[in-house]
Amino acid sequence: MESDGYTGSDSTLNGGKISLTSTGDTGKITLGAGVDYNGNATDGTLAAASTAAGAVVLDAQGSKGSLVNSTTGTSAITTGTGGTGGTWQVYVNSPSDYGTSLGDNLNSNTNAQWTGWIYNLSATAPRQPN
């Protein structure tokens, strides 16, 4: 999935963000290889043009929410253009329970924090544990 955004009259990139949210107690987000509208094979990765914080957000909601990353590309998620990247977040209750499989190409080069409490986030407040 790609989100290119658009350039405004002031040469600023607008949009270009991706947000996927599951619902219910056992919400599940699955990323995987597939085909595009032309029948060409894809590696299932997410690419957002945005350089903003939160350029890509995956939110597997619920106490048993899960993410299955079966993408085949070098990086499951890429952000930004021209060498300037945005950030991405994955919210899932556990890195290994409830069918979650993060794969081997999901690396933000930052720390990982696990909780199902996305709505308690702020820039300064710690996440609430389950």
Strand and helix map with partners:
Elements: E1 2-3, E2 6-7, E3 13-14, E4 18-22, E5 28-32, E6 34-35, E7 41-42, E8 46-48, E9 56-60, E10 66-70, E11 77-79, E12 88-91
Parallel strand pairs: 1-8, 4-9, 5-10, 8-11, 9-12
Antiparallel strand pairs: 2-3, 6-7
Number of helices: 0
Mean pLDDT: 76
Shape type: globular
Rounded to the nearest angstrom, the radius of gyration is 15 Å
User: In percent, how much strand structure appears in the residues?
Assistant: 25-35%
The main sheet orders its strands as 1-8-11
Brief digest:
Helix content is 0%, strand content 31%. It is mainly beta and 130 residues long. The N and C termini lie far apart (31 Å).
Characteristic key phrases:
130 residues, mainly beta, 3-stranded parallel β-sheet, disordered C terminus, globular
Question: What does the model show?
Answer:
It is a single chain. With 130 residues, the chain is mainly beta. It is built from no helices and 12 strands. It is globular and about 45 Å long. The chain starts with a strand and ends in a 39-residue tail after the last strand. 25% of the residues are buried.
